[in-house]
Structure to design on (196 residues):
């Protein structure tokens, strides 16, 4: 049997161990960095070292801005044919407007009046996952291929320039021309915000 002195020693050691473990736990940082105190990230973003890390489709200091917002407006377009099966159209310019509208997902938007034709609507554009200023035309889904006299090739897309609020795009399309033959054209587009 333990004597009274041994019991006191065991109790003292137990008390010291409990005190040390509580002190250690209270000094160990648990949870997010203290630089994230008061930082609120929206739309599923999270704070890392005082900055919000935004999910794909959102940007800004607190992830409160939809990445597609910069695209959603009516654009004035200057289109130039830079390559074609029909040599006589190379260098031809066209001017028209088209509208970029909101879609069902935060990483896509829709073009209405594509190529200046009111028949070409709901053309889906997808933001690049690494750079939200870059988009491509979604040619994989059948919704973009329902135009029986127009085919959009996969290399088609564009880039938004935040310094000038303009878009430069390159498209490759196949379409039925005036002779009822398929014609392949390479187009460059310069888009500027439409002002009424």
């Amino acid at each position: 049997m333990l004597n009274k002195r041994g019991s006191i020693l065991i109790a003292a050691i137990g008390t010291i161990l409990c005190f040390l473990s509580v002190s250690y736990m209270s000094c160990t940082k648990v949870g997010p960095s203290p630089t994230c105190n008061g930082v609120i990230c929206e739309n599923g973003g999270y704070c890392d070292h005082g900055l919000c890390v935004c999910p794909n489709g959102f940007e800004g200091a607190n992830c409160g801005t939809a990445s597609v917002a910069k695209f959603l407006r009516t654009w004035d377009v200057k289109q130039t044919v830079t390559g074609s099966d029909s040599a006589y159209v190379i260098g031809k310019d066209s001017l028209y407007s088209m509208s970029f509208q909101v879609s069902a997902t935060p990483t896509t938007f829709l073009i209405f009046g594509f190529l200046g034709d009111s028949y070409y609507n709901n053309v889906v554009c997808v933001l690049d996952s690494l750079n939200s200023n870059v988009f491509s035309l979604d040619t994989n889904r059948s919704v973009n291929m329902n135009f029986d006299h127009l085919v959009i090739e996969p290399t088609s897309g564009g880039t938004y320039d935040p310094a000038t609020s303009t878009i430069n795009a390159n498209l490759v399309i196949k379409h039925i021309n005036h002779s009822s033959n398929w014609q392949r054209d390479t187009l460059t587009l310069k888009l500027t915000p439409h002002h009424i």
Remarks:
- The first helix runs from residue 4 to 27.
- DSSP finds one helix and 13 strands in the chain.
- Helices lie at 4-27.
- The chain has two domains: 29-63, 67-193.
